[in-house]
Automatic annotation (TrEMBL):
Record carries keyword Signal: yes
InterPro entries: AL/BT2_dom
Domain 3-keto-alpha-glucoside-1,2-lyase/3-keto-2-hydroxy-glucal hydratase: 25-210
One annotated GO molecular function: hydrolase activity
Organism: Kordiimonas sediminis
Pfam families, per the entry: 3keto-disac_hyd
Protein name from the UniProt record: Glycosyl hydrolase
Signal peptide (residue range): 1-18
């Protein structure tokens, strides 16, 4: 109940002052450390789909600080992918996950992973409170709200993860994880959105983002 009330307060406070949502169609993305979308991605209108090995991760052309991101996704059987935020792009950061926290996408049924790596998790740090995924072949609806240090992960209408990136709890979890080896991880409060190519077919569509006030 407390989590629900906190979520409602966060949304009502920010939504009143938010800008209109923007559709992040195929023209709004490029490959990480590149200038265009690789042939491994099929980009048509509002749909982006991994169709070949080695497609590479995509990042938004613009950067975002505080935002409300919604997107639909469909994963293959046993598939794994993710959406990252506050991603930095510098020559020394070879992967998006060196800097960006990940909203995990997964076929929970077809892939036996621990709770910290299931769909909706902040990958390897915070597990979802419940499994609200739809069967493989159906689209899921996700929502990622970032307001300052406060972050919420929603999955098919349910708040499944919430955390404070400035808290001692968050810092302790990072320090005890593999991310402790990457100084850029979650270090910035503005950056790109990224769509992960994890080697499995995945489809994204209707990706919309609303900038929220500071």
């Amino acid at each position: 109940m407390k989590a629900f009330l906190a979520a409602a307060l966060l949304f009502s406070t920010t939504a009143a002052c938010a800008e209109e949502s923007t559709l992040l169609d195929a023209s709004q993305w490029r490959r990480y450390q590149s200038t265009d979308i690789s042939a491994g991605w099929e980009a048509k209108g509002e749909t982006l789909r991994v169709i070949a090995k080695g497609a590479g991760d995509l990042i938004s052309k613009e950067t975002y600080r505080n935002f409300d991101l919604t997107f639909e996704w469909k994963i293959s059987e046993g598939g794994n992918s993710g959406v990252f935020f506050h991603v930095q792009e510098t020559p020394d950061l070879k992967q998006v996950y060196f800097s960006g926290p990940e909203y995990q996408l997964l076929d929970n049924v077809g892939r036996d992973e621990p709770p910290l790596e299931q769909a909706g998790a902040l990958f390897a740090l915070y597990a979802p409170t419940e499994d609200t995924t739809k069967p493989v072949g159906e689209f899921n609806t996700s929502r990622l709200i970032v307001q300052g240090d406060t972050v919420e992960h929603w999955l098919n209408g349910k708040l499944v993860v919430s955390y404070d990136m400035g808290s001692q709890d968050f810092k302790a979890k990072v320090a005890a994880s593999k991310f402790s080896n990457w100084p850029a991880f979650a270090a910035k409060r503005e950056g790109h959105i990224a769509l992960q190519d994890h080697g499995d077919p995945v489809t994204f569509r209707n990706i919309r983002i609303t900038r929220l006030p500071d």
